[in-house]
Every structure is written in C-alpha cells, then in structure tokens.
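Continuing the series of single-chain predictions for the mutant panel. This is the parent chain; the variants come on the following pages.
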Amino acid sequence: MKILLLGIGNVLYADEGVGVHFVNYITENYRLSHPEHQVDLMDGGTLAQGLTPILCQYDHLLVVDTVNAAGVEPGQVYYFDFDNAPPEIDWQGSAHEVEMLQTLTMMEMVGDRPKLMC
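Parent structure:
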C-alpha cells in the first residue's frame, strides 16, 4: 500500500503553511519505514491541481492543513474523513483550500482519488 502525507499551505502568510512546516519537520527529524507499506511525505505548497498526477499514484492520502471549523479552537488538532467531511468545515478559508477541494473532487469524478483523511 502506498501512503502519502501531504502538507499544504502558503508559507508566505503568517497563519498559513502549517501543513508544509509539519511535513518538513517530520522529514528533517524522523525516518518513516514499514516492511510492507510505502510511506512518503511531501510539501504540496499551494500546487493543488498540479499535484493530481502525483496524488493518483497513492492508495491513501493524509492532508495536513489549517481549516476553519465551528466549535474548534485556534491551534486545535482536528481531523476528519474527507468522504464524510462535517458540514461545518469552511472550505472558503483561502484560495489553496478551494483549489485543493476542487482537485480532490475532480479526481473523485474520474476515479483517481485515493482514500483521504484531512
């Protein structure tokens, strides 16, 4: 099984880039290995649709980013299954979130989207 931990965000904004910084931190400080599964880490920045040919090669995708969600405090770790995203998730927070949502939706339409956790 191929698994990708994808950090997205714009490091030029003060409140963005959390996903990118997280993935870079893990890459610099840890070595991930598994005898049966391939685990890759990637700084996806704000590439969104440009990531499509890479994302479709994976069985599972974990996306690390910031989101606005009702009832969640700033800095709180929050995760969800993309297929059952809570209705309170605000995908309109920034341009890269909208582009990433569109990218994942298009991948779903053609049957190329991996199983996804955000």
